[in-house]
């Protein structure tokens, strides 16, 4: 993709000084088109929920794979597949009707600091959500605000950990009200809520507006956002997310998080 007119082959770091809002939007819109397509799936953990057709299977598979989405992407995908296999590739059925010995089979699972005991704790948390709170979508939809799901995520965490679990497991779900960017859950919500015809995001949740989503902020998207003048805060935390959200909503108030594809693609695939 050529850089915006008049930029030639100058140092990319200087782009932000030359691009006005209109040029920036055009540049990012093109990048969204470039990366928001089926080719994106093969190297991304979003492929895991795509394995399923039943709503509950999709949302549970997505939740579990998003929850371990940090570190090497190949390992994330490999270990997400392993999670599905340990549940007999029927995630909803496993969550609802597992036995104590089924949970013991999870003991040897490990991804980074997420271990088999954490996995078992997550299964119990999910069981509680479906048995007593009408499922994941309803829990996240209940506390949504007009342009934010960060309160929703915080409330979700409380409900998720109502059941018996190890204290250590709580660290695997971030709380935005503690100034966390909650990258993994925001990514998960993008998968479930964003609706378009490109085939990457699943868009199966109709009770939450894509306008309320927040960008999954990590080291890649954060660095690109800073270079493009969309973010000034140095840390990738909740305050940085609020700043980035505001900027992305100026570019597209109805679907701000489509720009995750642009920021991530520029950072990971183009080394921007």
Write out key terms for the chains shown.
single chain; 2 domains; 2 strands
How far apart the termini lie comes to 13 Å
User: Which structural class do the helices and strands define?
Assistant: mainly alpha
Spans of at least 5 consecutive residues with low confidence: 4-11
Number of helices: 13
Strand order of the largest sheet: 1-2
What percent of residues are in strands?
Answer: under 5%
* Fraction of helical residues: 40-55%
Order of helices and strands: HHHHHHEEHHHHHHH
The structural domain count equals 2
- Nearest-integer average pLDDT: 92
Radius of gyration: 19 Å
Sheet of most strands? 2 strands, antiparallel
**Which word captures the global form?**
globular
The total count of strands amounts to 2
Describe this structure in words.
A two-stranded antiparallel ribbon has the order 1-2. The chain is mainly alpha-helical and 272 residues long. 51% of the residues lie in helices and 1% in strands.
Question: Short description, anyone?
Answer:
This protein has 13 helices and 2 strands.
Question: What is the secondary structure topology, with strand pairs?
Answer:
Elements: H1 15-18, H2 21-35, H3 55-67, H4 73-86, H5 91-97, H6 100-104, E1 110-111, E2 114-115, H7 116-132, H8 136-142, H9 150-160, H10 183-193, H11 219-227, H12 238-251, H13 259-269
Antiparallel strand pairs: 1-2
């Amino acid at each position: 993709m050529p850089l915006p007119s008049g930029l030639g082959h100058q140092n990319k770091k200087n782009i932000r000084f030359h691009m006005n809002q209109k040029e920036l939007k055009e540049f990012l819109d093109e990048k969204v088109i470039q990366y928001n397509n089926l080719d994106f799936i093969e190297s991304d953990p979003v492929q895991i929920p795509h394995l399923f057709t039943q709503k509950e299977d999709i949302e549970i598979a997505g939740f579990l794979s998003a929850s371990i989405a940090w570190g090497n992407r190949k390992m994330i995908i490999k270990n997400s597949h392993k999670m599905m296999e340990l549940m007999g590739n029927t995630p909803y059925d496993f969550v609802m009707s597992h036995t104590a010995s089924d949970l013991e089979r999870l003991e040897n699972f490990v991804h980074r600091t997420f271990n088999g005991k954490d996995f078992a704790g997550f299964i119990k948390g999910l069981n509680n959500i479906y048995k007593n709170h009408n499922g994941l979508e309803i829990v996240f939809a209940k506390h949504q605000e007009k342009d934010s799901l960060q309160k929703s995520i915080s409330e979700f965490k409380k409900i998720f950990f109502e059941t018996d679990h190890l204290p250590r497991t709580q660290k695997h779900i971030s709380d935005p009200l503690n100034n966390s960017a909650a990258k993994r859950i925001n990514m998960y919500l993008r998968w479930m809520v964003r609706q378009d015809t490109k085939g990457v995001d699943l868009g199966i949740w109709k009770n939450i507006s894509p306008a309320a989503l927040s960008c999954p902020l990590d080291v890649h998207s954060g660095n690109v956002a800073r270079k493009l003048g969309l973010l000034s805060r140095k840390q990738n935390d909740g305050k940085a997310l609020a700043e980035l959200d505001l900027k992305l909503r100026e570019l597209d108030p109805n679907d701000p998080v489509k720009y995750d594809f642009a920021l991530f693609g520029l950072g990971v695939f183009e080394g921007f």
